[in-house]
Amino acid sequence: MTDTSRPDRSDMATAEKGFGRGSGILRRKPIDDGAEETPGGGLAKSLGLWQLTAIGVGAIIGAGVFSLAGAVARDTAGPAVLISFLIAGVASAAAAFSYAEFAGLIPRAGSAYTYGYVVLGEIVGWFIGWDLLLEYIAIVAVVAIGISGYFNFFLQSIGLEMPLWMMGAPGTEPEGVPDGTYRINLVAVVLCLFIAFLLTRGVKNAARFETAIVGLKIAIVLAIVVIGVFYVDAGNYTPFFPYGVGGTFAGAAVVFFAVFGYDAMSTAAEESTDAQRHMPKAIILSLVISMVLYVLACLVLTGMQNYTEIDPEAGFAGAFASVGLGWLANLIAVGAVISILTVMFTFMLGVTRVWFAMSRDGLLPKWFAKTDPKHHVPVRVTWIAGVLSAILAGLLPIGEAATLTNIGILSAFVVVCIAVIVLRYRRPDLPRSFRCPGMPFVPILGVVFSLWLISFLDLQTFLRFGAWLLIGLVVYFGYSYRKSNLNRPRSGGAVTGPPPSGG
Known about the structure:
Layout: H1 9-17, H2 49-60, H3 63-77, H4 81-105, H5 112-120, H6 122-157, H7 186-200, H8 203-228, H9 244-255, H10 262-265, H11 275-304, H12 315-322, H13 326-360, H14 379-395, H15 398-402, H16 407-426, H17 441-454, H18 459-483
Helix pairs in contact: 2-8, 2-11, 2-13, 3-9, 3-11, 4-9, 4-11, 4-16, 4-17, 5-6, 5-16, 6-7, 6-13, 6-14, 6-16, 6-18, 7-13, 7-14, 8-11, 8-13, 12-13, 13-14, 16-17
């Protein structure tokens, strides 16, 4: 009996040329195998450098600058919160450089899923893609819940009240409201569906909206800095390390979650007009712009108020209100809502492109990969992601939804940093438009820092993550392994895995 699980020599040469080898669950996707035909015509290349950068900035700058900075300054790091952001930024940059090298080398949809699949094998790519589906959807839901809280507060401030049954998820009733009064967080549901609708109109139109909103957000942050600097009291910077150096590092662990987002932006590589040049630049630019704004904002915040007096939920609004600038405090509240909305956009874009890439590769039903012939976007997965995030946002308290996030993204960082080292030493001759500096030490730093942050997560998070991966294992061996494009006959009759069965 002929062993069809091994390619013949000509196919091995082709696989090596495309950098795809391995067998079984470790078979690797060829790097030049990402543009196969897609029902509906595939994705449209319409995103330029500044649109990509805006998508990245939109994901990175959100609740971190408007609320997280104040909470960490008051309770964890004091004025040294700016050092916490710098530490987190350096650690995030280690992963960002790895993403940038891959984005220039493999300009395909899917980001960490695709990079892991090409370098480390199908099973690694599958698990990263599978966990990002949950993580990104959960992030969209968490952000929508956060916006709904601001929106309800804004309505109350102008004398309007929403019906109690639509103000929150069951079990989130505040003191004075009887249990069982809340039924659904309707604002959060509508926001999720609105972002999904926006993305179905075509990535070019959606990116224009995102770019405009990000520009407004940056203008608001700059206004905070320019006006706030006139109210800075240098005495508020003393003591600079009230919680010691340990508090500064603990603060870095918290604010790290405010300095990623480029990972979701990189899932749109296939829609870039010149991905090999633009994607690496957009990743680095988005992180640099965000870090500069974070540091300037932290200097103003901790200079305007003593760290012990900072409002942990609305730091900047409270700081400006304390110096008699209530009108600016209201503007900041509006800016916070706008900032969080752009985060929803980027992460929903991310989940739909990962889902699209996995479906196009055969690991999920190809029905999901169909793109709309007019707008050239995966409309089916976009609406499914919108509905799933809406269900989570409408029916779960923010704490429970938040526990579904973070661990998967940090795991993706670990995989990408390891993969960039492996591919650099396996194929140093590949033409790279961007090369991660300090190889292998910079990617190793990304691995170490990500694992360190994972160690801070609670047992419940690990259990839920493990349960989701277990479900993924069942799906992979029950469907994906057999249906994978790498398990189908290629030219000459050779296959890269066992012959397909069951259709």
